[in-house]
Structures are given as structure tokens and as C-alpha cells.
Amino acid sequence: MAARTSLDEEQRAAAMAVIGDEEGGMVGERVASGATAACAACREKSATSVRERSEWTACDVVRARESGNAVLVAHGSVYDATEFIERHPSGPAPILRALARDNTEDFDMHSARARGLWEKHRIGRIVRCEIHGFGEFIPPESSASCALM
Predict the structure, then answer these.
(1) Alpha-carbon distance 94 to 103, whole Å?
(2) Domain regions of the chain by residue span
(3) pTM of the predicted model, to two decimals?
(4) Closest CA to 85 of 121, 59, 48
(5) Which residues are in the Cytochrome b5 heme-binding domain (predicted)?
């Protein structure tokens, strides 16, 4: 079976049903203040493929998710779980639910062996968007922030 490069329509529909309006709106709305499109600053910097960049803004993650990629963020690292979604031991539902939020808690609840599998899918790190900051994602520990903000 060929590796899947993005979520199929059925999985997207399932993801939207799971993450839809549960928490007051889609994740893109929370990141981009009512608009699901990524901000212009991030759009100009982004590469065409999920695997072509190592630095991701919150807007990049939202756009990749909207394009059908199962992109997760945990401890400031960005992971592409798209090809793993069908092989997840609990099925696709946990990953589909995870597309609505930061995934640090999900990462931490996994065993050391499972965290090793996450690392095989690591594609980059989250960086601050000039407009939206880190959005809903927990910034990496190495990100110094102003004490006044």
C-alpha cells in the first residue's frame, strides 16, 4: 500500500466532526482571530511541502492541518503524523482529535518507546509568528519572552 501524503476526505470530515465547534471554534479561528487563513507574513515565508521547512509558525501549522496534513506540536517540536495515522495502535481518532490543540500533554502520556516513534516523524520546531505569536501552542523552553508581556 502506498504511503498516504495527506488525510483523505473521509478523515478530514471525521476530524472536523471531532474538533469542529467543541471549544468555541476551529483551531484556525483561535490562532488567526476569526480567519482560518494564515497571516501574510507566514504565508510569504512558507515552503510548498510539509517536509521542506524546519521552522513552523502557528499559522504554518494551521494551514498544513487545513490542507489535510496531520501536523502535531509538542514541547515546541513539530511532527507530521499523516503517514502514521492509520497505524496508530488506537486507530486514527486520537490523532484526529489532537489536531485541535497543542499536543504536549499527548506526547507526555506516551511511553518512552512511543515517544521514540514520535521522533521519527519530527519535521521541525515551532517559532514565533510576527503577528500571532505562538497561537495555541506552548512555546519551546528555549524561547525567551519579555517579562512585561
Answers:
(1) 11
(2) 9-126
(3) 0.68
(4) 121
(5) 53-127
